[in-house]
Amino acid sequence: MHNEQDFSLSFEMTWWFSRIKDLETISKYNEALYRYQQKITNAAVEDMVLNMGPQHPSTHGVLRLELITDGEIVKEVIPHIGYLHRCFEKHAESLTYQQTIPFTDRMDYLASMNNSHAWVMGVEKMLGIDKDIPKRIEYIRVLVCELNRIASHLIAIGTYGIDIGAFTPFLWCFRDREHIMGMLEWASGSRMLYNYIWVGGLFYDLPVGFEERCREFVEYFKPKMVELNQLLTDNQIFISRTANVGVLPMDVAINYGCSGPVLRGAGLKYDLRRIDNYSVYPELEFDIPVGKGEMGTLGDCWDRYKVRVDEIEQSLRMVEQCLDRLQKELKRTPDFDPRAKLPRKLTPKAQDYYARCEGAKGELGFYFVHDNERSEIPFRAKARGPSYNNLSVLPELGKNVMIADLVAIIGSLDFVLGEVDR
Amino acid sequence: MSFDDIKLLLTQKFGEGVVTGEERTGLQPALLIDPDRIVEVCLELRNNPKTYFDFLSCLTGMDYGVEAGRFGVVYHLSSIPYHLQLTLKISKPNDRSEDNLPSFPSVSSVYRTADWHEREAYDLVGIFFEGHPDLRRILLPDDWEGYPLRKDYKTAEYYKGIKID
């Protein structure tokens, strides 16, 4: 007589074999699918196939990882994405450039300002109006982008703490992020999905008193960062869990197309804000933090974490410089209208253009193909999300590590599934 | 290195036939490459000490429309040491049936970035990449029918017997 476990195993096997039988003919188009199913079937006999996600809290969204495990050791990671696919590129092909901006907000929903900034800069460049944007508008854009980058990194740090088992930093980060959310809501009317940066201008000017309140926040936030560093960055338990774990060498990172804090954590000083010198970044002073391997090996989880902490400080510097300009030489005037330069028709010449900028997670690119001079709708728009490429390195990093370390690696890559799946 | 230098470098190394044309109208000039030789071109551009195009920024699968009847792939390379950017394009005519997908060589052996991007192009545009290690659908379910970013794609009315509203 079968006991319960035997029954479940045989049921699982029959289920897998029935899936293979579904493929009636194996052609070159579904041969990879067949190979994958064979691998999982065989692994279910010899090793153990463990599903992590899509509802697992440490996968930071609806990511499903299929782990082939031997005891506590992960032999192979197979990521399955697409649970949050919202057809961004299909939408972009049927909407005008202006109408697509709210959809870009929903890609990386933790740093929406950076997404719309990238999209808008690309469209402005195609229209040839990128040099006519008033300085005040450019400074406001960079100000809100950097505030949003701080908010995004605060989530990365806070949730990373909770992955490792530290609960307090999570609460502190969310408390401070709430101030930024409140300020951006004050400016744009929405908490997360702003639709604030428009082609050729802004939705509205900053509200009266925004600069003063923002300065108060910077003064409030600086000592909080010191506290956070004492609590988490130099915490011995945290270091033991993250140093020498998930080491990503620089050449592997480049070859996988990693960018942003993941690439800088591997020790390469590469930041598009300095390389491309777009917007007003050449006028701002800031350093590019890189991983140095202080606590262990260069390119480990701790380095990637530390790059984000340092970037928050650099972003605060930039916010202060923007506020200086916005309160002095670019002071608000009663007749200033951020919508004055909005083009009536967004009809670029027939061309294709790849726009890229440094989002909160790395190189955020949009590839536009425009074929009709009278149309406001792109022929094809492709989004290159940084998280998509940063996540693709996970099967490489997740080989022969402990399951608990895999959680640390996932957290250190800091991806947003909204951007991976688009 | 300028755009012309890169073109000269490629034609000297591989002969005149490798660059089939160029596009200079837009803001970013593009080289049109012979589809069969894209892998060696990418490998050369990556390894040559004068170019070092070591970073594949973006890979886009293209459907150029029903009338044109062409499919293509666009590569955006970027060189980290020299701060250069380069666009490569390959394309070929192909019919639109699902039994005969347009097929291009896979560059995932040169850039691992291409692995997931080619899976995405296969999934959404229906372009087959020869020599890809694991060409499965990535964003859509494995049993999805059709390729949504093709210009002649019709939205499905039913998914597994469930009516889509």
UniProtKB/TrEMBL annotation, chain B:
Subcellular location: Cell membrane
Keywords for the protein's UniProt record, in alphabetical order: Cell membrane, Membrane, NAD, Quinone, Translocase, Transport
UniProt xrefs under InterPro entries: NADH_DH_suC (IPR010218), NADH_quin_OxRdtase_su_C/D-like (IPR037232), NADH_UbQ_OxRdtase_30kDa_su (IPR001268), NADH_UbQ_OxRdtase_CS (IPR020396)
Membrane topology: Peripheral membrane protein
Pfam entry (one): Complex1_30kDa
Enzyme Commission designation: 7.1.1.-
Catalytic activity: a quinone + NADH + 5 H(+)(in) = a quinol + NAD(+) + 4 H(+)(out)
Top-rank taxon, per record: Bacteria
Limits of the NADH:ubiquinone oxidoreductase 30kDa subunit domain: 32-158
Family: Belongs to the complex I 30 kDa subunit family.
Function noted in UniProt: NDH-1 shuttles electrons from NADH, via FMN and iron-sulfur (Fe-S) centers, to quinones in the respiratory chain. The immediate electron acceptor for the enzyme in this species is believed to be a menaquinone. Couples the redox reaction to proton translocation (for every two electrons transferred, four hydrogen ions are translocated across the cytoplasmic membrane), and thus conserves the redox energy in a proton gradient.
Protein name: NADH-quinone oxidoreductase subunit C
Source organism per UniProt: Mucilaginibacter aquariorum
